Amino acid sequence: MGAARPPPAGISAKPPANGRSTKLNRILDMTNDEAIARAAIAHLQTTYNAKGDHGKFDEMMTVFAPDAVFEVPGERHEGVAAIEAYMRGVLANATLAPGKSSPARHNLTTRQVEFISPEEATGISLFLLIRDGEIVQTGVYFDRYALVNGEWKMSYRRVKMEVDRV
User: Under 8 Å CB-to-CB from 23, ≥6 apart: which residues?
Assistant: First the structure.
């Protein structure tokens, strides 16, 4: 074995003085407000996929801020009404339509949320869409979240498709 490599720029080679890892410090130093915000944002992400998979658009739309923007490759939808109209069209598509041999199931993985301020956050999450036991889509959600009237809402979502067999 050769000599140990130096850590990447911005990463200290020494552990924090308190003996905990840097990652553990960040988790343990999280405020109650941040923990609550993270849970609320995770709930938004889950609600979006679960309600969409079941065609419950009234409930799905509750995750969005009134002026939210939703982008998919080649399309941009502004405002909850436009987003809902787009989603209803997706459900009418044969891929997600009711009556298939199995329902569509979105699975989220690798969620990361960073706070810009106490009222704003950004997020990235990976998704898989499974249909009839097969992965038919994979991609990345790029999100922005905002505190609206005391509730976390999705203010922006861009969907990047990586695999699309739909």
Answer: none
What averages of pLDDT result for each successive group of 10 residues across the chain (166 residues)? 54 56 64 92 96 90 98 97 92 60 83 95 96 90 98 98 89
Q: The whole model's pTM is what?
A: 0.79
User: Could you tell me the residue ranges of all domains in the chain?
Assistant: 30-164
**Cα dihedral 36/108/64/162 (nearest 10):** 140
Contacts of 89 (CB under 8 A, 6+ apart): none
CATH number assigned to the domain covering 30-164: 3.10.450.50
Q: What phi and psi, each to the nearest 5 degrees, are found at residue 121?
A: -145, 160
The H or E element containing residue 81 is: helix 80-92
CA distance 67 to 164: 28
